[in-house]
């Protein structure tokens, strides 16, 4: 598989390296070889933390779950693993309520050195990782900014002291100054890590020309902003990963996935 590495540096006193992975869309053992190629690349990068900004699984009907759990175990031997959730983890259960595979993610959460942050905070060495799980109505309603602002102000009216890193699956609204500035705690957010946009299915050689815009995104319309790259709003940095998977191999269109490289995002703070 082809792997692209994107490097970003943020000035801070912490001297830590973070690997950001997003949008794996795991569905079966078919992508296990790709995941181990990624693991070997991560090992060589010598990170302090490995963060996931959601969409680890593709839907509720995934197979070979034990292999995914084993991969996380192997990954946790490299560095501390911090896990946020996206929209593809969630599905309707028999009671027509949206939920995620708690059995699978509880097993991952029980791995030594791995932490599932479903609206939880994990603090270490002066760094606070906040895993924001936005209610799925937000995605179903087209990612309306009023829904996001209401949720954030109710759930996170303030943050602890320290270097605050938020894992929020979609950057579509939080990368906009007009939205972020309405979130009460935004001045305390040092870094936001996101994915979801799949790089807008933009080829790497075009990214400099398009400056963060993508051809196709989860939102309606084309050439949307904030599909990949780094942005800064006051003192808050936003980094958007193009993702491990651009086109899921579990779907017919996935036969074209060879056209896109998987991304490992490397952040030094």
Can you tell me about this structure?
By secondary structure, the chain is an alpha/beta fold. The chain has one domain (3-268): 4-Layer Sandwich (Purple Acid Phosphatase, chain A, domain 2). Helix content is 21%, strand content 28%. It contains seven helices and 16 strands. A six-stranded mixed β-sheet has the order 1-16-2-3-4-7. Strands 8-9-10-11-15-14 form a six-stranded mixed β-sheet, with no helix packed on it. Helix 2 links the parallel strand 3 (49-53) and strand 4. The two termini are 28 Å apart. The model has no long low-confidence stretch (mean pLDDT 92).
**CATH A-level architecture:** 4-Layer Sandwich
Q: Indicate the percent of residues in helices.
A: 10-25%
Beta-strand share of residues:
25-35%
Q: What is the CATH topology classification name?
A: Purple Acid Phosphatase, chain A, domain 2
Low-confidence runs of at least 5 consecutive residues: none
N-to-C span:
28 Å
- Tell me, what is the CATH class? Alpha Beta
From the alpha-carbon coordinates, what is the Rg to the nearest angstrom? 17 Å
List the helices and strands and how they pair.
Blueprint: E1 3-9, E2 17-21, H1 32-45, E3 49-53, H2 65-76, E4 80-84, E5 90-92, E6 98-100, H3 102-109, E7 114-116, E8 120-124, E9 127-132, H4 137-140, H5 145-155, E10 163-168, H6 177-180, E11 191-194, H7 207-210, E12 214-216, E13 222-224, E14 229-233, E15 236-240, E16 262-268
Parallel strand pairs: 1-16, 2-3, 3-4, 4-7, 9-10, 10-11, 11-15
Antiparallel strand pairs: 2-16, 5-6, 8-9, 12-13, 14-15
Helix pairs in contact: 1-2
